[in-house]
Write a structure and sequence with these properties.
mainly alpha, about 70 residues
Length: about 70
């Protein structure tokens, strides 16, 4: 198979002692290419559901708020 024009230029520059960008392509430098960066659709919908809740610690299903007053 023939070499591309760009690869021929890179090889020529490497022979002349110049910088070879292929040296940076040997490893992922600690990165995991399979790591998910963007949230899934389910995670996105759950985040929108929790976004404007008043109190996350109360687990009331009807959405009501209880206020207790102490009379003096």
């Amino acid at each position: 198979m023939a070499l591309s024009k760009a690869k021929k230029i890179r090889q020529k520059q490497a022979r002349e002692g110049k910088y070879n960008p292929e040296l940076n392509r040997l490893s992922w430098n600690g990165l995991d290419p399979a790591a998910r960066i963007t949230p899934t659709l389910r995670e996105h919908k759950e985040k929108l559901q929790r976004k404007h809740k008043w109190n996350h610690s109360l687990d009331s299903r009807d959405g009501s708020i209880y206020l207790l007053y102490r009379s003096i």
